[in-house]
Structures are given as structure tokens and as C-alpha cells.
Amino acid sequence: xxxxxxxxxxxxxxxxxxxxxxxxxxxxxxxxxxxxxxxxxxxxxxxxxxxxxxxxxxxxxxxxxxxxxxxxxxxxxxxxxxxxxxxxxxxxxxxxxxxxxxxxxxxxxxxxxxxxxxxxxxxxxxxxxxxxxxxxxxxxxxx
Length: 143
Known about the structure:
Elements: H1 2-5, E1 12-16, E2 21-25, H2 27-30, H3 38-45, H4 57-73, E3 77-88, E4 96-108, H5 116-134
Antiparallel strand pairs: 1-2, 3-4
Helix pairs in contact: 3-5, 4-5
């Protein structure tokens, strides 16, 4: 799925407010992603059992947009692959943090060409999150 969408989920933990339990979404869950179900499965990550946490999306979308814009502009490093750590507070409204981790797969720009893959992956993730924010998850189609 990663070569198609430009990203994949390696795992997630989601606190379910209705059952007071933490749901672990592991690598096996992440391997079930397809372009057809990516939006619905991303929405699962934001579902706390009571609601879809759309309150975190404006801040998360802004942070991912800033990251994509940075990698579009910078010409020093080519990022082959990395990981995003997305953490939102299960109880407090609108609190979300985005961290880029695992930089072991980058090379100097003079060796590689561009960050098109990063732009595609973050662009698809932004598009999916935008549909979730608007409540139009079923309408998302990969371009």
C-alpha cells in the first residue's frame, strides 16, 4: 500500500471513552489498508468510541501541511522514508502533536533527485484527513 498511497500505518493505540479501554491497531491492521478503504481506516484511528475526533483535525492538517511545504521547498536532503508520530489527547479537545521520527533513510540531495514521494504521501494523507474533517470520508478517491 505504501508505494500506492505514499504512506502506511505501522500501528496505533486509541483510547475508547465508551469502554474505557485502549484499542491496539497493530502492523497487521495497517497491512489491511488499500486505496479504497484508506479513508475509513484512518477514521478508525480518530474514533474514540463515542465520536470521530474531528476537533484535532484543523491542528493536525496544519502541521502536516507545514511539513509537506518544508520538504517541497528544501533542497538539501532527499527523504526516502520516515515515520510520523501522531499523538492526540484522548480526553482534551483539539490537542494533537505531530513528530517526524526515524530519519535513517535520507541522503544528501546531490545523490538523489527530489522529495516527490514525501509530497505524494503527505498529500494523500491530507486529502483523507480533509474528507474526515468534512464528514465526507466515503467520497475520498485517490487521484
